[in-house]
Amino acid sequence: MDGAGTVSARLEAQFAFLNEADRLKSVLRATTLVDGSRPENSGEHSWHLALYALVLADQAKAGVDINRVIRMLLIHDLVEIDVGDVPIHSANGLAHGSSETMAAEQRAADRIFGLLPNDLRQDLRALWEEFEAAQTPDAIFAKSLDRVQPVMANLMSGGGTWTTYQVTADQLEQRVGTKIARGAPALWEWIKARTAAFFP
C-alpha cells in the first residue's frame, strides 16, 4: 500500500472510532444534571469529569499526571456504548462491579478500541485498563473524580439517586466515600460534610 493509501486507511479507522464514540451521547445515566431537569448522558459525564480533573488538579497527590488523568476520563466510559450505565447504587450496590458487568465491559472494550489503528488501540486500551484497575496514582485520582461528580449532582438536585435507590450514609461511605478518599482525602472530607443533611 502506498503512502496515501496508508494515510487513508488510518483516517478511516480513526473516524470509525470517533463516529462510534458519538453514540456515548445517547447513553442516559441514572444521575441527573445538577438542576435535576433530565438525566445526563455518558458523553456529558465524561466531558464534565475531564473538566473536574483540570479544575481540581490541586487535590491530586504528588506525582499524579493530570494530563493522563484527563485522557483516562475522556475514554473511561466508552464501553457504556454497548453495556449502558450501571449505576453504583443499583441492585443494592451489587451490579456495578459484578463479574457479568466486568465481562461485558471487556467485550465492549475489545470491540470499540478494536476500531482504532494498532498504535492508538494499544495506547487507549492500556489507559482504559489502567483506569479500571485503579492501582496507579493517576488512575486512583481519576476514579476519585468519577465518584465525586455524581455526588455533586445529587447534592445540587435534592438527593437524586440517593433517593431513587434509598441509599444510606454507610452505603455512600462504602461505595463512594472510600474511593474518593483514596485519591483525594481532603475532597471527600469537604463533600462528606455537605452530604450529612441528606442522611439524618
Largest beta-sheet details: 2 strands, antiparallel
The helix tally amounts to 10
What oligomeric state do the depicted chains represent?
single chain
Shape: globular
Strand content: under 5%
Q: Which class best fits the helix and strand makeup?
A: mainly alpha
User: What proportion of the residues is helical, as a percent range?
Assistant: 55-70%
Mean pLDDT, all residues? 94
| Uncertain ranges | none
How many angstroms separate the termini? 68 Å
Number of E-type strands: 2
Query: What's the gyration radius in Å?
Result: 18 Å
Describe this protein's structure.
With 200 residues, the protein is mainly alpha-helical. It has ten helices and two strands. It has a two-stranded antiparallel ribbon with strand order 1-2. α3 crosses α6, α6 packs across α7 and α7 packs across α9. The model has no long low-confidence stretch (mean pLDDT 94).
